[in-house]
Specification:
This protein is an alpha+beta fold. The chain has helices at about 25-30, 50-55, 65-70, 155-160, and strands spanning about 1-5, 5, 35, 40-45, 95-100, 115-120, 125, 130-135, 140, 145-150, 160-165, 170, 180-185, 190, 195-205. The chain has 4 helices and 15 strands. A 4-stranded antiparallel beta sheet has the order 6-15-10-12, with no helix packed on it. Strands 8-13-11 form a 3-stranded antiparallel beta sheet. A two-stranded antiparallel ribbon has the order 1-2. The longest helix is centred in the first third of the chain and has 7 residues, at about 25-30. The chain folds into 2 domains: about 1-70, no CATH class; about 95-205, Deoxyuridine triphosphatase (dUTPase) (Deoxyuridine 5'-Triphosphate Nucleotidohydrolase, Chain A), CATH 2.70.40.10.
Length: about 210
């Protein structure tokens, strides 16, 4: 990858940007901390990372591990990139946007699992016999005639007595997905940042008016 006089080796994923040639993500900008001249549309890389590890003067590659690149991607691998405002009848893609650098890419626990694992991006205390809201840092775009059901994880429900409440997300909801965790036990419980707290299941519905 070459940007101006800067060059490095990196693991990249392709996306159809349509109106842009390239988008520099926050992980790369934080890593290199370049100077950007918005008037001249010029970007200069001069951080210690660039002078010691990138390909400006010596062939020392700075490679982003594939796992890290996947987590930092804005859209999960199974999704199709869409530039539409909303789903249509023929649009069956599922898009997941990371709203926070702390957000985790959705993955399945096994090949035949019904749901995708949801991770929290923050530590949250849940009082005994009470509930709390945990953020996931992601937003989801759904196909036509579908919705998302947020279901508890079996292991968490059994071992920690944690359930999920209000677990329906409509296809027109575009804001952050948050999970209401209900503590059914007699003792307070704390979920830590990065914990798997629930699962996201996409289900079909029939949007027909009742008669």
């Amino acid at each position: 990858m070459d940007i101006s006089s800067h060059g490095e080796l990196a693991t990249l994923q392709e996306a159809n940007l349509q109106k842009h040639e390239v988008i520099l993500g926050m992980p790369l900008l934080r890593e290199h901390n370049p100077t950007i001249d918005w008037n001249d549309k010029r970007i200069t890389f001069h951080s210690a990372q660039c002078t010691t590890g990138c390909l400006k003067s010596s062939p020392v590659p700075y490679a982003v591990p594939e796992e890290k690149a996947l987590e930092e991607n804005l859209i999960i691998r199974l999704s199709k990139v869409q530039a539409k405002n909303g789903p249509t009848a023929n649009d069956q893609s599922v898009t997941v946007n990371k709203l926070s650098v702390e957000a985790r890419v959705l993955i399945k626990g096994s090949a035949r699992a019904a749901g995708q694992q949801l991770y929290t991006i923050e530590g949250t205390d849940i009082p005994a016999r009470g509930q709390a809201i945990a953020g996931t840092g992601i937003a989801i775009g759904l196909p036509h005639n579908t919705y998302v059901r947020i279901a508890p994880r079996s292991s968490v429900a059994v071992k920690q007595q944690l359930a999920t409440n209000a677990g329906v997300i409509d296809s027109d909801y575009r804001r952050e997905v948050k999970v209401i965790l209900a503590n059914q036990g007699d003792h307070p419980y704390r979920v830590e940042k990065g914990d798997r707290i629930a699962q996201l299941i996409i289900e079909k519905i029939h949007n027909r008016e009742l008669q």
